[in-house]
Amino acid sequence: NERTRIINRLHAVLRDLLPGGAPTRLSAEKAAVLMKGVRPATATDSCRRDLARDLLADLRRVDRQVRDNEAQMRDALAAARTALTALPGLGTVIAAKLLGHVGDVARFPTEHHFASYTGTAPLDASSGKNTRHRLNTGGNRALNSVLHIVAVCQIRDGGRGQEYYLRKIAEGKTPAEARRALKRRLSNVVYRTLKRDRHKALTAAA
């Protein structure tokens, strides 16, 4: 979030300094190249250039922190010996978030308890002979967001996740309903993966 804020401010300053402004998807390297061509014509432009330099320095600092943080997460995942990163759409950052929020998976007796915690288990809204379910807005919203990202990646990139999603669409579900069904399925997959990780760790320690 801090990186995005800095880039937005830098983009706004460069827009005032350069004809046509700065391109989208701005990075520290692109900004540095653009700023080499800045020749302030007024005192105001000189102030803007100095501000842009300060923002560029902030952006480089945050980029270093992001790289260091990702390296720490990779080390933590290696120490945890988790198989989460083998799942499609689930990289270092997502896996680290999952491990951090879930903690000890043994505290969830079943995959249904885990799905309730992640907010992917639909709530019963049946009435009489009508069987209906409604969206679960409870649970751990950070975990729910993580599973949403994984679901979107799998739908986009193909594979078993996309096949499951398209099968639900063919059954008459809306795209949102099919995506929620995939998230529920992913919750089970993550739960079983964490259970296997824990079993392997206990076996190795025995």
Description:
The chain has 206 residues and is an all-alpha fold. Helices cover 68% and strands 2% of the residues. The protein contains 8 helices and 2 strands, in the order αααααββααα. It has helices spanning 2-17, 28-36, 43-80, 92-102, 111-118, 141-157, 160-170, 175-205, and strands at 123-124, 133-134. The chain has a two-stranded antiparallel ribbon with strand order 1-2. The longest helix is centred in the N-terminal third of the chain and has 38 residues, at 43-80.
How is the largest sheet built, in terms of strand order? 1-2
The unreliable regions are none
DSSP summary: helix tally: 8
Radius of gyration: 23 Å
**Count of individual domains:** 2
Class per helix and strand makeup: mainly alpha
Helix content range: 55-70%
Write the layout of secondary structure elements.
Layout lengths: L1 H16 L10 H9 L6 H38 L11 H11 L8 H8 L4 E2 L8 E2 L6 H17 L2 H11 L4 H31 L1
Antiparallel strand pairs: 1-2
Helix pairs in contact: 1-3, 2-3, 3-4, 4-6, 5-8, 6-7, 6-8, 7-8
Question: What keywords describe this structure?
Answer:
2 domains; about 0% strand; about 210 residues; mainly alpha
In short:
By secondary structure, the protein is mainly α. Helices cover 68% and strands 2% of the residues.
